[in-house]
Structure formats: C-alpha cells, structure tokens
Amino acid sequence: MEKIEFLTKNFGKYDVKSISDYKRIGGFTALEKAVEMGAESVCALLAEAKIRGRGGAEYDVGRKWSQAREVVGDNKIIICNADEGETTTFKDRELIKNDPFNLIEAMIIAGYVIGATEGFIYMRAEYACYRPILLNAIAEAKEYGYLGDNILNTGFNFNIKLYSGAGAYVCGEGTALIRSIEGKAGRPRMKPPFIKQSGAFARPTCLNNVESLSIVPHLILDDKKVYMSNVHDISVGTKLVSVAGNVNNPGVFEIPFGVAVREIIYDLAGGVQGNRKISLIQFGGASGKIATDAILDTPYTYQDLRAAGVMVGSGGILVIDERTSVLDFLRMNQDFFHEESCGQCTPCREGNLHIKIILEKLAKGEATQKDVEMMKKIARVMSMSSLCGLGETAQNTLMSAMKLFPEIFEVGGDD
User: What φ, ψ does residue 253 adopt, rounded to 5°?
Assistant: First the structure.
C-alpha cells in the first residue's frame, strides 16, 4: 500500500522544540491565510471537506464551528480534547509528539474563527511525558506573537493553557472534561444547556479532538485540493488509525478512506502474529463493536463500516487472534468499564457491575438462560438511559458478540 502523508507530512521534518524550525517548513502560514480568508470562508472550507469529528462522535466540524461562531457571548473558549482514554487509540499522542506546533496553530485558527479569547488543551495524565513539548510550543508561540494580544495586527487576542486530567476515562466526554477543568469531579452533566452555549466556566465553548483540529492548517494550505480528491460519500480525505493487539507491526498509520480493512491489518500492521487465525476485530476502542474476519475486505469508510455492523469511532483497530476466546475478551472489556464508570448514574454503575458478574458466571459454566436474558435487558437499558456516552456505548461489544457468536450464550436451565 502506498504511503500517505497529509496529516503526517510534518512528522520528522522539523525540530519539535523550535518554532523557528516549524516556520522554516511553512509553519503559521495557514494562520495567516485563514485571517486573509476570513472566518466564514474557513467554516465553508471545512464544510466542503466534510470533516467528521475524529474523537468518535463523528459530528461535522464545519457545522460545529459555524454554530459556535453564531453563539452570542463574550470570552468564548476553545478546548482541545487530548484525553484519548479510549483503549487501542493512540493516534493523538503521535500528533502531539511529532507536530505540536501544528496543533497550537490549529487552535489559534479555531479561536479566530469562532471568536474565542482563550483555549485549553486537556491532556490525559498518562501523557505527562509530552507536557514539556506542548508547554514549550505554547511559550514559543507567545514569544513570537502568535499568542497574546493583537495577533497578526488583527485585534484578535487569544491564549492557550494546558491542563492534565487525572486518568479518568469518563473525562473524554465533553461535559465531564469541562467539569475537570473547572476543578470539579470529572462527572458528566445533563444537556441542555449544550456546551456551545454554556460550557467551561459557563462560557460558550467549542470542543474538538486533537486529530480534528490538526487537519485544519493542512486543509487551508491544500490549494490543489488533494485531501478532497479522495471522496467516498461522507468519507473524505485521510484518517489516522491505531492498530494494536496480535499484529506484527502495531502502530499509527495514515490511510486514505476507502482502503480495505485487510490492507490495514496485513500490509501496514504486518499481519497476525504467527499467521494465526483472527478470533475477532474490535473497531473504535473499548466501546466499539466487534467483527469477525469476514469484514477484512470491507472498505474503511464511515458508511461501509456502519453497514458491516461496526464504526470508525476513535480510529482504533484491535486484532485478537485465536489464542484468546471471545468470552475472555468480553470479560476483560467489561472489567474496564466496571472500573471506569464514574458511578453517578444508576444504569451505568449497576449495569456494568451486574453484567460483569454474569459474564463471570458464564465463564464458570454457572450461568442460566435467565441470566443471559437479564444481561441483554441490562445492556438495552444502559444504552437508552445512561447519562453519558460511557454508559450508552459500554455494551456495544457485548451486544455485537451476541449476534456474531450466539453459541457462547447458549446455556441450559432457567434458574
């Protein structure tokens, strides 16, 4: 498969500790061009490119920025979600590590477009080793006049602060992340009000994932429209995917939408260890659905994966070979959600606990048909009534396994 470099084209091309070296390769020319274009034109460009949020929710970025721009309010905020707590997902880490100034430039462009005065980067605690990289990038951007007052003599004032989370998976959810920034317990809240109207510190807020933001400077400078030349319905351009599990070459790869899943796993990730048979593939992290190897020839696009019963989600692809049983994988996945549930709402708190208990009974051969039916019922209730996305999607893996591997859940007895 031919190597693609659009979002990753700066990787290894400059000293990530030096803003002058970033400028040498064209750094901050996208910001200058964005100012020349004007905010509305930037939003129109994002809408034309059909960029869908790369954090898992898949919300249209152009639409999000346009909506945030239209909100009336002082001291708007831009937040970069660098929590990346979804298992099997480590693409944002590579963007922070290899191209930090591009992320800072993207946030400044976002601030300019929606009329924000302040930006926050919320980075997961486990990425503490990358804090110096971002802190240096922020400091140098301020020293060179790209942060602070009257940026590029436009009257635009904007600053960025870096926050570290406390390692809670639920803080990847927007409202929980905001509460954490505010110094409160990182727990989600009900919506409305939506964060675009009342987010961090009750100020209008626009929140984007690292990858979603990082695309913007490259897109603004893409005069030949290389990115938009690769079109598959709603799937346009390229995507960063994180491949992990029982593969020979785990890592982060930039792919054009439309390549087959087989090419990602066998060409880029080097195939399955020991040429073993694939037991299952999970897409989009712990909250993602699973598939068998029948999905290998499916094109990697939003619509094709959805039709096959899975989703792009966070871009994670976890390959599990025949050495791990499906049931053991489900138990491991459920242990994660039982541990990470914040406990605020009953469906998620109690649901994750009881499904964990039933899966343990199933593994011991002690589960009854009534247990299996109860597990299905709990999973449905969680998906419909949990407060946030954690509880709503925690049982995606289980429910897809029940469809793909019904024999695992065939037990005797009703008591």
Answer: -135, 140
